[in-house]
């Protein structure tokens, strides 16, 4: 039997100890508060609704329950009706029939998962809108058109009517985003998805009309307005001056997407510019998807593909780090798209979503 002297063990430990110790200070002061981590109901509900109810229920549990991902935010896509959109997956039905007349049985796919998010107690539910109903757009379509000056009141009434309907059903829609990616109409016709161009000098009308409608119903403090969800961090600051000063007190949070996949430095530049333009309002990251890349962050860019390794998940973790740590943001949403690209996992066609799977 080999006996080892305790003094030799101690000496060995001392050899590997660091020569310099840096003490850590733990502060009782809150440095950052996270308000939500979640995803968007576009466009996967269309496909997943076709599965048996047991599978849909199991998926809902995986997304929203505390034994699953436990998402604390969900973005419900209020459909525009898909007029002139060629891809049915990206053309959700709208409840709008005519001014003040609605069919709330429309879009059973989207409303099913909205109700599931609520039933699992997701605390933050946003209703976001890609386009006004076709009768209100410049070309009477759900894409390739533009917001019509002077239509803000009608558009706002529609949005608030829908939110009030779901709130009366017990679904606490706490935010409305009235223009999702207003910098893109997603034309030409036939379009790949819904979209409505809202020029920078039109956006104040959209926000103020929505706030006025909420305020007239006593909902201005219950439902916040998110704006303007421009698609990239490089474009958004160049457009703030045309609309934000007029409505800054009506906006709850400055919300953006990051489809330009900015560097850390550029991300921080965006956050600083948004704070400056808004008088210090918080910024939220609300949409990104569809990128491959390396764990170090190289190779990011809008694309689709399949990565069976953990590399893509690590790349995505870097995007979340960029928002929370570099940008100091309190809220992060990603796209939960039809192939679950945001998780770096297998596509849902390959997942066993059955109750016993």
Describe the structure.
By secondary structure, the chain is α/β, with parallel strands linked by helices. The protein has one domain (33-350): Alpha-Beta Barrel (TIM Barrel), CATH 3.20.20.80. It is 31% helix and 15% strand. It has an eight-stranded parallel β-sheet. Strands 3-4 form a two-stranded antiparallel ribbon. A hairpin with a 2-residue loop joins β3 (96-98) and β4. The longest helix is centred in the middle third of the chain and has 17 residues, at 152-168. It is globular. Residues 6-11 and 338-351 have low confidence and may be disordered.
Can you lay out the helices and strands and say which pair or pack?
Elements: H1 6-16, E1 36-40, H2 45-48, H3 53-64, E2 73-78, E3 96-98, E4 101-102, H4 108-119, E5 124-129, E6 145-146, H5 152-168, E7 173-177, E8 196-197, H6 203-216, E9 224-230, H7 236-239, H8 244-247, E10 253-257, H9 264-278, E11 283-287, H10 311-326, E12 331-335
Parallel strand pairs: 1-2, 1-12, 2-5, 5-7, 6-8, 7-9, 9-10, 10-11
Antiparallel strand pairs: 3-4
Helix pairs in contact: 5-6
């Amino acid at each position: 039997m080999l006996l080892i002297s305790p003094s030799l063990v101690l000496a060995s430990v001392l050899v590997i100890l660091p020569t310099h110790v840096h003490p850590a200070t733990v502060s009782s002061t809150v440095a950052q508060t996270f308000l939500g981590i979640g995803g968007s109901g576009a466009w996967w509900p269309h496909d997943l609704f076709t599965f048996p109810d047991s599978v849909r229920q199991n998926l809902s549990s995986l997304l929203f329950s505390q034994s699953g991902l436990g998402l604390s935010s969900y973005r419900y896509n209020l459909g525009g009706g898909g007029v002139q959109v060629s891809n049915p997956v990206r053309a959700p039905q709208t409840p709008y029939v005519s001014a003040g007349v609605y069919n709330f049985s429309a879009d059973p796919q989207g409303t099913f998962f909205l109700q599931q998010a609520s039933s699992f107690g997701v605390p933050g539910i946003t209703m976001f809108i890609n386009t006004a109903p076709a009768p209100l757009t410049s070309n009477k379509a759900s894409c390739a058109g533009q917001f019509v000056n002077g239509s803000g009141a009608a558009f706002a009434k529609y949005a608030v009517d829908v939110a009030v309907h779901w709130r009366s059903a017990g679904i606490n829609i706490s935010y409305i985003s009235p223009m999702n990616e207003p910098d893109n109409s997603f034309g030409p016709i036939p379009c790949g998805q819904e979209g409505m161009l809202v020029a920078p000098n039109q956006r104040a009308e959209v926000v103020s009309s929505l706030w006025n409608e909420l305020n007239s119903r006593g909902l201005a403090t219950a439902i916040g307005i998110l704006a303007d969800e421009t698609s990239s961090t490089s474009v958004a600051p160049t457009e703030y001056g045309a609309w934000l000063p007029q409505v800054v007190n009506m906006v709850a949070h400055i919300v953006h997407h990051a489809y330009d996949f900015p560097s850390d430095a550029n991300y921080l530049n965006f956050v600083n510019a948004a704070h400056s333009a808004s008088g210090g309002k918080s910024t939220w990251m609300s949409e990104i998807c569809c990128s491959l890349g390396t764990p170090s962050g190289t190779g990011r860019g809008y694309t689709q593909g399949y990565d069976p390794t953990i590399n893509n998940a690590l790349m995505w973790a870097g995007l979340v780090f960029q928002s929370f740590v570099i940008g100091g943001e309190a809220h992060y949403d990603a796209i939960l798209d039809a192939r679950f690209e945001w998780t770096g996992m297998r596509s849902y066609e390959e997942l066993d979503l059955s109750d016993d799977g």
